[in-house]
Design a protein that fits this description.
By secondary structure, the chain is α/β, with parallel strands linked by helices. The chain has 10 helices and 15 strands. Strand 3, helix 4 and strand 4 form a beta-alpha-beta unit.
Length: 388
């Protein structure tokens, strides 16, 4: 452990001898290291060359630069760990009070009670150590904040962000998606990718929990589902295989709710598996809104050996499949009232002739107006596909 460096500033020569004699054991053991100056100017020169000095014992009445002027210069250094203990005659209370009002840590009166001064120094060291711990924690928090910012950028980067995603099929399908994390990083994700010339896979999912753990499991889940989606011919095969792998790697009972669909760009047929996720809504071309039936499939990653069941949905020209995570209906206003699916459907019902992006932006605007500045408590993710 490094020695506590102490600067004694006094124009009386016996003070240096007194300090060295009284604190000789701590000096020999390396606990304290003393520096000595005879006035404020000398003290400033020593502080300049030894910026790690953290305790100053300063007389008030000295030639050239007195203790009060030195204290003012020390305050300008803005070192939160530096502690100044003023020393003066007992009858000099006016200057002592001024020193205390100007930021001195404590004071001692002459003739100095060395036992009392030793306790004062120890008290100063306790506060200095507390400042160092606080600075260390602050640095760690700043480092963590920087890491989280980087993680957020990486997480956003791995999600598809180019729209329209399939220019060659832009006359057949319109896709748009967004993910807004409640924290720096989130557990929601969406994905879409080509399986072959006529089929597009669609994924929207919500990992249990929040923060870094959820974000890591999100990245693993997204990678596995995409990989299996490329290999498997159907939605049920994809999630059955993905579940097998995720259940093997899941830690601390992590799981993910998933809606996985395969869309036929020629026929408009959607084959899908809903594994414990919010049922998507279908906005028909005539403005009616339907909610897909609730599925009996369970969440992904919690239990091995699950075989998922598949369902189908027919999208006609102009129909839109609106997929979302629970952050949409469960968004709350300051009175803790949820946004709900009824408000969602009211917005959707007026958007039948709009693009996927316009639908997403309208829902987001509706949520923003409803929550009225309340803190976002969950990730808000939407994936919308419209058959053109």
């Amino acid at each position: 452990m490094a020695a506590t460096k102490i600067l004694s500033v006094d124009d009386e020569a016996p003070m240096e001898l007194l300090m060295k004699q009284y604190f000789r054991r701590k000096i020999r053991s390396g606990e304290y290291e003393f520096f000595f100056a005879h006035n404020g100017l000398e003290a400033l020169a020593i502080l300049y060359n030894n910026p790690d000095i953290e305790i100053i014992l300063s007389d008030i009445n000295m030639p050239e630069m007195d203790g009060l002027a030195l204290l003012a210069k020390v305050n300008e250094m803005r070192n939160p760990a530096l502690r100044v203990i003023m020393v003066s005659a007992y009858g000099d209370m006016q200057n002592i009070r001024q020193a205390m009002n100007n930021g001195a840590f404590d004071f001692a009166t002459k003739p100095i009670d060395m036992d009392d001064l030793a306790l004062t120094i120890e008290k100063a060291i306790e506060q200095i150590n507390y400042v160092h711990e606080s600075q260390k924690e602050h640095s760690q928090l700043e480092s963590l904040k920087k890491d989280l910012t980087t993680a957020k950028e990486i997480q956003q980067y791995i999600l598809p962000r180019v729209f329209p995603p399939f220019p060659e099929a832009s006359d057949k399908v319109d896709i748009y998606a967004t993910m807004e994390a409640a924290k720096d990083v989130g557990g929601d994700f969406y994905d879409f990718f080509r399986i072959d010339d006529d089929h597009i896979a669609l994924v929207i999912a919500d990992v249990c929990g929040k923060g870094i753990t959820a974000a890591l499991f999100m990245a693993v889940s997204r990678t596995m589902i995409r990989s299996k989606g490329m290999q498997c011919g159907s939605a049920k095969e994809c999630l059955t295989e993905s579940n097998r792998l995720l259940a093997a790697y899941s830690m601390d009972c992590m799981f993910v709710t998933v809606f996985y669909a395969v869309y036929n760009t020629k026929t408009g047929l959607v084959s899908y598996v809903n594994a414990g996720h919010n049922p998507p809504h279908v906005l028909r071309a005539n403005g009616t809104v339907e909610e897909l039936s609730t599925s009996n499939n369970i969440i992904v990653g919690a239990f091995d050996g699950i075989t998922y069941q598949e369902q189908t949905l027919q999208l006609e020209h102009g129909d839109t499949l609106v997929m979302f995570t629970d952050g949409v209906p469960e968004a709350m206003n300051p009175d803790f009232v949820e946004f709900g699916t009824e408000r969602l459907d009211n917005i959707l019902g007026s958007m039948a002739d709009k693009s996927s992006q316009e639908i997403v932006e309208a829902v987001k605007a509706g949520i923003e107006g409803f929550v009225d500045g309340a803190e976002q408590s969950d990730d808000i993710t939407m994936l919308v596909l419209k058959r053109k």
